[in-house]
Structure formats: C-alpha cells, structure tokens
Amino acid sequence: MFRASLRSWLVLAVPVVGVLVLTYSATSPEPRADGDWQVAAEPWDGPLPSGGTAQLSTCGVDTWPRPEARGKAEQSEDPRLALTSWGYYDPGPKTPGEPRFTVHAAIRTGDRPLVLDAPVAAGRVTLDFYGPHGEGVRASARGLTATVVDGGYPGKPVDVPASGRFQVDPGEELLLEVELPAGAVCPGHSLRDVSTCLPEGTNDAADCPMLTLTLSDPAIRAYRAGTADDSTARFFSDRLVAVFLEPDVSRV
C-alpha cells in the first residue's frame, strides 16, 4: 500500500492551495482605496474647532423657533435682545481673512444699568437658522460666545474695560457679534446660502429663513429679580431670546 511521506503531502498540497487562492482572487472584489469608501452618514452633533457644539442632529427638523421659556420674565421688555443684521462676508483673494457669516444684535436695558461680565455670555450663546416653508433647521450651534463690537460693519471688537465688565446704561445699547461656524451648517447648505430666501428675490418675509439667537448670563436673572440677593431670583430666566421672523406673535 502506497503511503505518502510528509514531504510528499506538502508537494501535493502546494498546487491545490495555489488553485484555491487564484480562484478566490478572481471571484472576490478588489479592495478599495481609502478614498473610495463612501459611507452614508447621518448628521451628528460634534465639537466645533472654534468652540461650542454643532447640533447637526436637528438638521431638517421643523420645530418652533422660539425655545420654551425656562423661567419668569424671559419675554419681558427689559432687558431685551434685538437682532440688527446678519449676513455672509467674503473678503476675496486679495484681502486677508476667511469668509464669515456673522449675526449682529443689541442688548438694551430698562431704567437700571445692566452689568455683564466679559466675555459676554461665554459659551452660553446659541444660534439657529430655519429654512422657510417647513424646510426645518439649516444650521444650529450651541456653546458660542458673543463679541462686543462697535457700530461698524463688520464690527470691530471693543476692548474689555479695566473692571472686566461691560455696563449697559438706560437709553444705551451693547452691540454684539456672533459668528456662525461653517461646521454648524447642515449638509446641502453653506455659509453663503444659509440665509437664502425661496424663491430668491422674493418680497415676502415668509419665503425667508427664520433666525433664533439666545444668550444666557446670571446677571440677566439678577436684573429681572431686582437684586442678586433676592431668594426668589432662581425662578427668573437668565436668558435673552431674539427671533426673526416670529411666525406667530400671539404665542410669544
């Protein structure tokens, strides 16, 4: 009876293994280069390079633009936050700087001064853009910081006073600039078109995006409560809210 040695088995096995390898290679798809993989990923919330968080999980979600009030006097007249302007600015190839989208607003007070620590509302500013006609969220950012600027456009940052605080006196206003990070813009949009109306060139405000800007500061709660030592101060809201265009003022 023929009995193959270990050496003979190895000699016989090599051609068989080779045929199997060739067969597998011919029937298996070739591996793709790293740049060829296309994975359909859902928008997700994540940190922004400049600070704050992009809340992209809300992209396309059609919600009420004014956040639910979280304390007394949030919708009172004083102090108040008013939107003044917003837009995209591209310095062009011959001017230093990168394209930016900024929102400008003003804080106004009542018959008493309002004192805010610098930087104003550090890490407590939110910015949301909603497309018209039920399109839903186009951009959303949390944890931003406002910059105090002068009256120019684009605004020039104002030096922080020696006291480390900004004071808003009655009849005066504190001008703020908040930058919308590019990373907070939803897929399908860009900084350039995030505020575009549909149709473009329309004269109807209902065809244009809604903008919501909020900022929180303990000084706002103290102001509304009348005194920082008031034991009831915790029941008052520390947030200022500005919405353009408020879709239904009866719900404010």
Describe the structure.
- With 252 residues, this protein is an alpha+beta fold.
- It is built from two helices and twelve strands, in the order αβββββββββββαβ.
- The chain has helices at 6-27, 218-225, and strands at residues 45-47, 53-55, 80-89, 100-108, 114-117, 125-131, 136-144, 147-148, 165-168, 173-179, 210-216, 239-244.
- A hairpin with a 5-residue loop joins strand 1 and strand 2.
- It is globular and about 50 Å long.
- The termini are far apart.
Write the layout of secondary structure elements.
Layout: H1 6-27, E1 45-47, E2 53-55, E3 80-89, E4 100-108, E5 114-117, E6 125-131, E7 136-144, E8 147-148, E9 165-168, E10 173-179, E11 210-216, H2 218-225, E12 239-244
Antiparallel strand pairs: 1-2, 2-7, 3-4, 4-10, 5-9, 6-7, 6-11, 8-10, 11-12
What is the residue-averaged pLDDT? 83
The low-confidence parts are 1-40
Distance between the termini: 98 Å
The geometry reads as globular
What is the makeup of the main sheet? 6 strands, antiparallel
What is the count of helical runs? 2
Structural class designation:
alpha+beta
Q: How large is the share of residues in beta strands?
A: 25-35%
Rounded to an integer, what's the Rg over CA atoms?
Answer: 29 Å
Query: Strand order, biggest sheet?
Result: 1-2-7-6-11-12
Approximately how much helix is present in the residues?
10-25%
Q: Say how many strands there are.
A: 12
H and E order: HEEEEEEEEEEEHE
Provide the descriptors you would attach to this structure in a database record.
single chain, 252 residues, six-stranded antiparallel beta sheet, 12 strands, 12% helix
